[in-house]
Specification:
This protein has about 140 residues and is α+β, with helices and mostly antiparallel strands. It is built from 5 helices and 8 strands. The two termini are about 20 Å apart.
Length: about 140
């Protein structure tokens, strides 16, 4: 499981270092194969290929003729791209993905159980300051 958050820089070519803790999990459990996709929260999500395939199976069970399902699938799958870690443990974020997620120089790489999110640091801080009270309420509603 991916846990924790780590601040990293994006280099001039759009590469970001994946924390060594996450790299070990990716290599040991997932053979290094990844899928990078846009998220609805203006961040990027990195799934190990095995986890992505599980998600695809769940999505296949959705009612494909519903417009909201079609819209979701178009957004989500059109942004999906397979990637691998380079020898320095970095992934390349395509320019289109950096633009859509407003990623420039400094990012937060966040472990979220079976996936990794990549946030522009400023966007992460804004999101957290807006949602602080709501998170506690949501946890109570969920019984946590």
């Amino acid at each position: 499981m991916f846990r924790g958050s780590f601040e990293h820089s994006v280099d001039a070519k759009g590469r970001v270092s994946v924390p060594s803790k996450f790299r070990d999990i990716i290599a040991d459990r997932y053979e290094g194969k990844l899928v990078l996709a846009m998220d609805f929260d203006k961040c990027l999500t990195v799934y190990p290929l095995e986890e992505w395939e599980k998600l695809e199976e769940k999505i296949k069970s959705l009612p494909m003729m519903k417009q909201e399902v079609k819209d979701f699938m178009r957004f989500f799958f059109s942004s999906a791209t397979e990637c691998e870690l380079d020898r320095q443990g970095r992934i390349l974020i395509p320019p289109s993905h950096r633009d859509r997620a407003s990623i420039s120089k400094s990012v937060l790489v966040v472990g979220i159980m079976n996936k990794i999110e990549i946030w522009d640091v400023t966007a992460w801080e804004a999101r957290h300051s807006q949602n602080g009270d709501k998170i506690g309420e949501a946890l109570a509603t969920l019984g946590l």
